[in-house]
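Morning, I've got a small favour to ask if you have a moment. It would help a lot if you went through both lines with me. Thanks so much in advance, here it is.

***
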Amino acid sequence: MDSHCCWKLVKLNSRTQMIQLWQNGASVRDIARGTGYSITTVYRWINRWQREGSIYDKPRRGRPRVTSAEQDKQILRAIHAYPKQDPVGIVQSLNYRCSWKTIQRRLEEQGGAQFVNFRNLDHLMALKGRHLKVGADTWIPWVDVHERADGSLYASGVAAEFFDIIATKLNFSYTLMIPADREWGRGMPNGSFTGMIGMCQRKEVDVAIGPFGITYERSKVVDYSVPLSMDQFGIFLPRPRLEKDLAGISKPFAWQVWMVLAVAVLLCVIISLLINRILQQSKAPSVKYSIKPMWILVALFRGSTQIEPETDTERVFLATWMWAGLILSTAYCGVLTSLLAVPKVTVPVDPLQDLVSYKKIPWAIERGTFLHQVFSEATSGVYKKISDGGSLVTNGYDERNRVKTERIAVLCDVFTMKKIMNDDYSNTGICNYYIAEKPITSVALAFAFPKGSDLARHFDHWLGPVKESGLVGRSIAALTANATACLIKPGKEGMSVSLVISLQDLAGLFILSGAGQLSVQRH
């Protein structure tokens, strides 16, 4: 029995090498040292060659070989000619029915194993013929699930396309399954999860496309593939526009300037009234005029007065205010003109706190996402306010029209935001959306598997090179190319927009000017 075992362990190419070395005059000891086998084994094969003229295995009981010696040679020649093709497909094209393990043995017997990467072959054949259950739901542009006429489902999108590539590489078919609650996966107090993560946790599916944000809580119940991509999550808003504001007449000066001016006018009025009282008590009754408080308005509005100052005190008072009025009115008119000529659009919301404090834009959160769980678990602070004050939506892409027309904000991923901006700008040529500059968080996105699944290893074998090649990034860039025109700050899009000043824009100026002129005329 031991002798038979030893004979069986010596590969055909090693036997051939022993006989060739012996025929060339090498000693048995040198042959044993060179081939790595014992002297007894070398003697046994030399004696077999001398006795029978053959070193091939003898027929024995058990499963017969599925290929002949000539067919083995044909397999070696075909694989040598096409080293980058699937060896199983090559063998099947020769009408030989054998497994990839058989092909591996035949190549090793003939010394041709170097022509095939058996590590790739292991991944190629690991799932051959299997039919997988795959969890999926719509998340444009990553995945878009459609229904065929026969009721079966199929998916398109960036993640779905790469999933199909892996399905081809690993030789498996699949059926899509949508979670009943239409969620990605939130942890419950009892340790279970909703959505597709829950389907993986309960082993209802073999893999879920997602892609899913990798979080510690989810990693307790599922395994992840290598990340497809890194994405940011932020605030998606209607684009800020120029707003009509009667208070715009105050914008040329900061509030501190207006405060100082008001205090100065008030003080001067009080001082002038005191001086008038003093002068009236000291002058003769023939003295008719003194310091007039209305001279301040005359000076500020650059008007004229028919009451001339009689004393040096009055002249200094009026001259001082005329000089100050000249400076202030010139600066005011210049800044106001520039504001009207080059309007500045105010962005009311940027960090998350602004969304809460602004109170003019309602917001929504995508239901069942990791972001939904982060906000819902908050017990205080801005996250708690976001959770309490927001509504829930299925996904950000479906809410794109509401963002534009109803002017709501959606908290979602940046890739979705850019895809919406790309499609909208391609159709309208106008930037109608805005992405807040400060993201909420960043997260890696990946496929999900039931805990302990061997599929993750086979998926990673192909996903790793895909990621390193930059194919995912290029796909994202191709789908969002036109969004770059709208990623600049609002008001600086570079589009030729004609600024038309309306009566509402000028209403504040007319009111202020009219009040001033009325005061002067009364004086």
The chain has 22 helices and twelve strands. Residues 312-341 form the longest helix (30 residues). Confidence is low (pLDDT under 50) at residues 1-8, 495-499. Residues 2-118 form one domain.
